[in-house]
Amino acid sequence: MAEAKQKPQKLQAYVWEGRDRKGSKTKGEVSGTSMALVKAQLRKQGIIADKVKKKPKPLFGGSKKITPFDIAMFTRQLATMMKAGVPLVQSFDIVTDGLENQGLRELVASIRNDVASGTSFAGALKRHPRHFDDLYCNLVESGEKAGALEQMLDRIATYLEKTEILKKKVKKAMTYPIAVVVVAIIVTSILLIKVVPQFESLFQGFGADLPVFTQFIIHISEWLQAWWFIVLLGMAGCIFSFREARRRSQKFSDTVDKYVLKLPIVGEILDKSAVAKFGRVLSTTFASGVPLVDALESVSGATGNAIFRDAVLKIRDDVSSGTQLQTSMKETGVFPVMAVQLTSIGEESGNLDEMLEKVADHYESVVDDMVDNLTTLMEPMIMAVLGVLVGGLIVGMYLPIFQMGQVV
After folding, report:
1. pLDDT for the residue numbered 4
2. The whole model's pTM is what?
3. What whole-number percentage of the chain has pLDDT above 90?
4. 61-80: per-residue pLDDT in tens?
5. Strand partners, 19
6. Can you say how many angstroms the Cα of residue 113 is from the centroid of all Cα atoms in its chain?
7. Of all helices (H) and strands (E), which one includes residue 14?
8. Alpha carbon of 171 to those of 145, 304, 305, 306, 384: distances in Å?
9. Which among 311, 169, 90 has a CA at the least distance from the CA of 319?
10. Which residue among 167, 260, 264, 269 is least crowded, i.e. fewest CB within 10 A of its CB?
């Protein structure tokens, strides 16, 4: 019977106090899987430890969350160290010393210990699927097998950096419309709950019928004062339900992806960003020596949209049956003409990875320009929306006063 696979021990942080080779008192922090291993590690460094204990966890909060940008920064630093001729394990030590995020420090130290114990770099990464996806691990594995790990890490770092910058631009584009709606709702709610009741008490002494528009605003104000908490819970419930539905139902998520591309301005930004991701991921994987069909498999899950995912899977099937990449891209109907033309040039010239990189660069630049234009457009739009809402409420409240002045 095969021996069960041993579960890797969890890395922990330890603080220590002791004396160095010169007898001077010193202290510090080190990561390890057990106190005995930590003491042995300190002895190798010439430190006589008088006190070693687990680092206490903070009362509020803990390690900062490890973001994709942190992974990109780690990859870039590791690539730089290896290109300078520093061995892999030593590169981990140098990179770890410069990290401020404790969670990332522990992650890198864990990978370092696995590699030092004989595990391949890709194998060590696969033990942390939360931070390193299949694409990352497969590219590292290809680099190890080809004996060109430093070049592969440099290529992965560039891919991650470009991808994260693109994500940040798309998030910026999505944030502005949401910000307009949120600000409009907050300002309108404050006016209806706090300001309109003051006018309502003033109108009670007029002894005349109020204009229809004013009565409408007062009724909304009274209803909102009585049921504001229900409205708040309803909005929170709708947002939560929407997120859960997208997470649990693939069909619902695909439907949302389909219609979000039809939104004005924002939909076009998402469309162009998906094309940019397609070019960036396919260029990176294909240039790394991954067969085109396998590369397309990786690309399908990285575009970020169900429409493009299905299109890329169709392209994969077509290419595996002998169809040219540019022909299949054209038949899907989701890729712009320029992307198809550049891909065609790449196939004919034998420089497909370079042309796909140009596709990514071009559409990343297009997304950048569109986000800047959206930002410029949204500023007066915010003022217009707030002006209509606030102005409408003010006009509604002053209509009875204007009418009374006309009677006098």
Report:
1. 42
2. 0.68
3. 4
4. 455 688 888 888 888 888 88
5. 25, 48
6. 28
7. strand 12-19
8. 37, 13, 14, 18, 23
9. 311
10. 264
Q: What does each C-alpha distance from 64 to 100, 103, 141, 233 come to in angstroms?
A: 9, 6, 28, 30
pLDDT at 294 over 50: yes
Name which residue leads in pLDDT, 206 or 188: 188
The angle subtended at Cα 127 by Cα 122 and Cα 129, nearest 5°, is 95
Q: Assess whether pLDDT exceeds 80 at residue 41.
A: no
Kindly tell me the sign of the dihedral angle through the C-alpha atoms of 178, 179, 184, 187: positive
- The DSSP result for 82-149, as a single string, is HHTT--HHHHHHHHHHT---HHHHHHHHHHHHHHHTT--HHHHHHT-TTTS-HHHHHHHHHHHHHT-H
Distance between CA atoms of residues 12 and 31, nearest Å: 6
Contacts 24+ apart (CB under 8 A), 42-47: 42/16, 42/18, 46/20, 46/21, 47/16, 47/18, 47/19, 47/20
Q: Which two tokens stand for residue 408?
A: 């006098």
CA 240/CA 244 separation, integer angstroms: 6
| Structure tokens given for 33 | 């899987």
State the angle between helix axes of 266-287 and 352-407 in degrees (0 to 180), rounded to the nearest 10: 160
As given in the structure block, the two tokens for residue 31 are 């990561």
Decide: helix, strand or coil at residue 46: coil
Helix axes 134-146, 266-287, angle to 10 degrees: 20
Least confident of 10-14, 138-142, 174-178, 371-375: 10-14
Identity at 98, one-letter amino acid code? G
Q: Which residue has the tokens 């910026």?
A: 172
134: phi then psi, degrees, rounded to nearest 5: -60, -40
- The sign of the CA dihedral 312, 317, 318, 320 is positive
Look at 316-325, 346-355, 371-380 and tell me which has the smallest mean pLDDT.
Answer: 371-380
Q: For a pLDDT cut of 70, what percent of the chain falls above it?
A: 90
Which one, of 13, 85, 18, lies nearest residue 54 by Cα? 13
CA 374 – CA 385 distance, rounded (Å):
16
Cβ(367)–Cβ(170) below 8 Å? yes
Checking if the pLDDT of 256 tops 70, the result is: yes
Task: Report whether 225 contacts 193 (CB < 8 A).
Answer: yes
Q: What are phi and psi of 164, to 5 degrees?
A: -70, -35
Task: Quickly list H helices, 305-351.
Answer: 306-320, 325-332, 337-349
